[in-house]
């Protein structure tokens, strides 16, 4: 039952993300837009490139969707509404998100197209920095909670959310989440106008519909991760716990979508340089800061 409710809320969130993304890019708020676009894609022929690596080409869209769903499975909507409350749940999120890189690399290699391949290898080259900025802030969060259970991470924020307790980690995790979801200005794997949609360039019809659905679910999953690790998840007054989780996730997703629309796309060399020279040292400093704070306070 928990799995069914979680999937329904995830799909509703993905639908709202599609509406918001369309609004951010076109300036028009069309509530029926995702339905119309989805039906249009399903009604079109799904063309296969001339000489693809067929296994990679076919497996990439569902693998991207599965990676997003696996990461979402350990993120609680309330204390008793979670698909899998794993003892290593916080690290499982990072492990599941690693398959986003695998899916995008397969989507880049499989079609045997130049733009798609450049997009896939861009993401491969940058994901090590992104992954470090995911797992290192999670380490600091787990230090405060003294647990890797995501439910206990939320409960540890009853007095003060981690966004205030460790703001550097919050900023690092938020930016890394945008990069993993390849949202502007970190949309280097797709880069519309530069790579002609990159890893999605060779997909049409139902395959493209699955890719777009997977990307929307990935955005919701990462927004939910920000909510769970830094905004107190379901904690809040008056409203039921699941409502607080939904509101916080929607707020984070909206911020992620709108923030990048006002910024130019970053060069891949700059992203790597800032990730390794600024992001990772700050994440290490955040771990040291949280450790010292825990020793002093306790």
Structure explained in plain terms:
This protein is mainly α and 298 residues long. It has one domain (2-297). 70% of the residues lie in helices and 0% in strands. The chain is built from 11 helices and no strands. Helix 5 packs antiparallel against helix 8.
Brief digest:
With 298 residues, this protein is mainly α.
Secondary-structure topology with pairs:
Elements: H1 2-26, H2 33-42, H3 54-73, H4 89-109, H5 114-145, H6 150-155, H7 162-165, H8 167-180, H9 205-230, H10 241-260, H11 268-297
Helix pairs in contact: 1-9, 1-10, 2-9, 3-4, 3-9, 4-5, 5-8, 5-11, 8-9, 9-10
Q: What ranges have pLDDT less than 50 throughout 5 or more consecutive residues?
A: none
Enumerate how many helices there are, as a single number: 11
Q: Got a strand count?
A: 0
**How many domain regions?**
1
H/E series, N to C? HHHHHHHHHHH
Largest sheet: none
> What does the radius of gyration come to?
19 Å
* Mean of pLDDT: 86
Shape descriptor: globular
Assign a percent range to the helix content: 55-70%
The N- to C-terminal Cα distance equals: 40 Å
What percentage of the residues does DSSP assign to strands (E)?
under 5%
| SS class | mainly alpha
């Amino acid at each position: 039952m928990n799995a069914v409710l979680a999937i329904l809320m995830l799909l509703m969130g993905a639908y709202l993300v599609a509406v918001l993304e369309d609004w951010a890019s076109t300036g028009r708020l069309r509530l029926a837009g995702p339905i119309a676009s989805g039906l249009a894609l399903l009604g079109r022929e799904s063309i296969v490139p001339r000489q693809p690596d067929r296994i990679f080409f076919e497996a990439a869209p569902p693998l991207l969707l599965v990676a997003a769903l696996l990461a979402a499975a350990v993120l609680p909507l309330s204390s008793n509404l979670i698909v899998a409350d794993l003892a290593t749940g916080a690290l499982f999120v990072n492990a599941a998100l690693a398959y986003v890189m695998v899916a995008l690399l397969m989507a880049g290699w499989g079609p045997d197209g130049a733009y798609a391949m450049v997009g896939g290898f861009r993401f491969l080259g940058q994901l090590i920095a992104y992954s470090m900025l995911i797992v290192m802030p999670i380490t600091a969060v787990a230090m405060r909670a003294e647990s890797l259970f995501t439910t206990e991470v939320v409960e540890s924020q009853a007095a003060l959310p981690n966004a205030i307790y460790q703001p550097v980690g919050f900023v690092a995790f938020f930016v890394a989440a945008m990069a993993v979801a390849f949202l502007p200005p970190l949309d280097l794997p797709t880069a519309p106008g530069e790579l002609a949609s990159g890893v999605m360039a060779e997909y049409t019809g139902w395959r493209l519909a699955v890719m777009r659905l997977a990307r929307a679910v990935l955005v919701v999953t990462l927004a939910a991760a920000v909510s769970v690790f830094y905004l107190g998840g379901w904690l809040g007054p008056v409203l039921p716990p699941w409502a607080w989780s939904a509101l916080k996730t929607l707020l984070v997703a909206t911020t992620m979508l709108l923030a990048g629309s006002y910024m130019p796309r970053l060069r891949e060399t700059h992203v790597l340089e800032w990730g390794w020279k600024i992001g990772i040292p700050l994440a290490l400093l955040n771990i040291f800061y949280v450790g010292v704070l825990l020793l002093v306070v306790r």
